[in-house]
Design brief:
single chain; about 160 residues; alpha+beta; Chitinase A, domain 3; about 30% helix; globular
Length: about 160
């Protein structure tokens, strides 16, 4: 009977060590994650015939203007009225809003950046790397380190 606790302690120690090894293998630098995200976003753009129209912001956000708008651009403090549908890069939809009014400063960083490229009436796409979305923690319906694609229409904005 005295051998069972020793075996159990050994098994627990082995499992803990394996957990540390697996966690160590899963770590990557923010730069490595950004590079992987960029590759996945570019692949998505190519697969969806958007690559030739895409622009990349210095932050890593890509945007595609499919229909030009007019009347200036919102800034990070603007209140915008927009319609959008959010997708994971595998095509799974996670959110959709119609004529939603929102303060840009309250949105994920990637949307704060991306929507500033859309004038009133513009339609297109915003592709957000994971660090500018929900990051390594994710949220309900969005897994950790998920890159996001938003089909958007900028309806109006004000300061």
């Amino acid at each position: 009977m005295t051998h069972k606790p020793v075996k159990l302690i050994g098994l627990i120690a082995l499992m803990a060590t394996m957990g540390l090894v697996f966690n160590a293998c899963d770590t990557e630098t923010p730069e490595q994650r950004a590079d992987k995200d960029r590759e996945k976003i570019i692949e998505y753009l190519k697969e969806n015939d958007l690559y030739d129209k895409a622009e990349e912001d210095g932050s890593g956000v890509f945007y595609v203007i499919e229909k030009e708008g007019s009347g200036g651009y919102p800034n990070s403090n603007s209140i915008v009225k927009a319609s959008y549908t959010g997708y994971l890069l595998d095509g799974e939809m996670f959110d959709t809003r119609y004529e939603s009014t929102m303060r840009l400063a309250n949105q994920i960083r990637g949307m704060q950046i991306g929507l500033t490229f859309f004038q009133r009436g513009a339609k297109g796409w915003i592709l957000v790397p994971s660090a500018l979305g929900y990051g390594e923690h994710g949220t309900v319906g969005i897994p950790r380190n998920a890159n996001l694609a938003f089909e958007v229409e900028m309806i109006d904005f004000g300061q």
